[in-house]
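Hello again, I could really use a second opinion on something today. I owe you a coffee for this, so here goes:
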Amino acid sequence: MLYLDTVIKLALGLGALLAVTRLLGKKELGQFTPFDFVYALILGSLLEESLYDHKISIWQMLFGVAVWAVLIYIVEILVGKNDKLRRLFKGSSTRLMKDGKLDLEKLNKNHIEMEQLRTMLRQKGIFSLKEVRDLYLETSGTISVKKYSSAEPPTAGMLRMEVKDESPSILLVDNGRVQEDMLKFIGKTADWLQEQLKKEGCSDTSNILYAEWSETEGFFILTTN
């Protein structure tokens, strides 16, 4: 009975974590603010305590998780409607550089060393501080950069070139399996796909490792051979 209780708590705990993650919205891990991290940390602590303390029943665990989830939801709603609360709970972006001049006071206040800043810039593909015009530290701890125009790569518009826009590619065959939902998404049928693959010399889908299709670029196919 003890083992069954643990299994049930683990299963329900996983469901609770997924539900709270949905409450937080579709964020990447790097977009989480420190406050979002506290959400998950406390929820994890609640689940951990219930797993190791068998005096806590399944219903008590669910009640604690439900109360915490409701509190999270209320805070998220309030934060989304009130700018002052959003700044209080989640903070705001900090401009570390303006017009090529570093704000050392803000840099020190956020405990960022120069080499750490250089590392963050390299992750953005920037290898010299002289390329940076404006630099912001976001609430998630990442940086946003506006480079000088002279450091930006030339675009087709700058060169007055006419470039045809490419349609997004759609994955139609994945490791030999036809993606029926993607075919419906683009308004095509399995018969159409089979006919097009024959034209490309790939009549047997089981030999296709990867096949994508774009309205402007056509097919790109990788086979297992």
Observations:
- The chain has three domains: 2-89, 94-151, 170-223.
- The longest helix spans residues 58-81.
- The beta strands are 94-98, 101-102, 132-137, 143-147, 170-174, 177-178, 208-214, 218-223.
